[in-house]
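debug: dumping io for the single-chain case to check the tokenizer round-trip. Nothing else runs in this session.
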Amino acid sequence: MARLHRQVMRVLLGDIASGTLKAGDRLPRESDLAVHFGVSRGVVRECLRGLEERGLVVVRQGSGARVTPEGAWNILDADVLAVLLHSGHGTAALFELLECRRVIEIEAAGLAAQRATGDELFDLSDALARMGAAAERVPGSQAAEDLFHLADIAFHEAIFRAAHNRALLRMVQPIQKTLINARRPLAAPERRFERALPEHKAILSGIAGRDPVAARAAMEVHLGTVESYLRAYSVRQDGRPPADGLEIEDLDARFG
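debug: decoded output
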């Protein structure tokens, strides 16, 4: 049942994210959904419960399920963000997640510069070395792309461990997990030697040098680069800049 209910839920998630079902619309009755999808009513109930847990519907006894406004949706849920991106409406959510990351990760870099142990500095150096090795592999290789991505994740996770703040680590995990599932708009493989690797090296230099100011500044530069890739992606998606009117950078970035 678990697998079936997720399949049905993802279809309805797509209908809601695409606007086929709008805020205030009532979903079909459980019995009608069961017939439509060829599943039991128990599967449909699990599906509706999943949609409600993610904030996309409100279920009321006797009146069924109604779609909620987008502001109520849990964009930290990987399924929700995935359907938003697929529908072409996910860039606003990604900007919000990157804004959260900026607030948290810049300070985490400063704390890591003050608190990192020798073992944690080794972990950061090792992750950066693996990023470099993966970047040198054949361009366009999916295996090399995956290796680079895993090393990049390890680098940033090591920063949060080095910050030695358990609450901070817990707070960032759902944001990081969601962004991992949306990595394509945030990647520019052809710019790794020009930007990604030097920026990560500067972050490590600030942390290893016990210089919180330099570590924070380097992290801010890096996250600004990631944001510029997302802005370019946003223009590619709908042909216009984000509503905040900020500068669009790197419009020639190619996303793999």
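debug: round-trip ok. Residues 90-238 form a domain with the Four Helix Bundle (Hemerythrin (Met), subunit A) fold (CATH 1.20.120.530).
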